[in-house]
Write a structure and sequence with these properties.
The chain is of the alpha+beta class. It contains six helices and four strands, in the order αααααββαββ. The protein has two domains: 43 residues, no CATH class; 97 residues. It is elongated and about 80 Å long.
């Protein structure tokens, strides 16, 4: 959905002319000439409004969004930072359900919500989040994940995050007896 609805101010002005001036080309040309600057202003205002959206922001404007949200850039590129801000804002408005945590973590890390992210409740007040990634998360990704989980998780609820950084995580007894080939998961966050 566009920020500004497309309005043709020249056509609108010409359509508001009294009917006796319908066949007056000079008056219509003069009116179009007088209205043209207003059309340019409207087009520019709509372009500014579109550029000011978080989904389109870049550079200093994106940094300003980060200040408003309270989330520093920490060396992220514009695309990474925009994505992180969108996730932080979404996470703050999320309900803290299992589905919300899985969805936002998958978005943040570029994983599939089904198959790559699992959440297991651990009564009375914690959960285990398991991630299946193709390569280990770097320090910046772990920091982003930690910040997102702080926003998504209710107060007083603990969590552990385990990552299996392999295209083939170690499984038990899928092919033959014992463990199949792959890597074990490793704990990367404990709260």
């Amino acid at each position: 959905m566009p920020v500004c609805p497309p309005v043709d101010t020249i056509a609108t002005a010409l359509s508001n002319l009294l009917s006796q001036f319908d066949e007056s080309p000079n008056l219509r040309a003069l009116l179009a000439l007088l209205i043209k600057p207003f059309q340019d202003i409207e087009n520019d205002a709509c372009a500014l409004a579109a550029d000011a959206l978080l989904s389109n922001a870049a550079g200093a404007l994106l940094d300003r969004y980060g200040e408003i949200v309270g989330y520093p850039r920490n060396g992220l590129s514009d695309d990474q930072y925009r994505g992180a801000l969108l996730i932080v804002v979404g996470a703050r408005n999320a309900s803290g359900t299992v589905e919300a945590i899985i969805t936002y973590v998958a978005l943040l890390l570029g994983l599939a919500a089904t198959g790559d992210v699992w959440l297991t409740l651990q009564p009375p007040a914690s959960y285990l989040l398991q991630l299946n990634t193709t390569s280990p998360l770097d320090a910046a990704q772990v920091a982003l994940l930690t910040d997102a989980l702080e926003e998504l998780t209710a107060a007083g609820v603990g969590y552990d995050v385990v990552e299996a950084a392999s295209a083939t995580p170690k499984t038990f007894d899928v092919v033959g007896l014992g463990f199949d080939s792959g890597l074990f998961g490793a704990a990367i966050i404990t709260v």
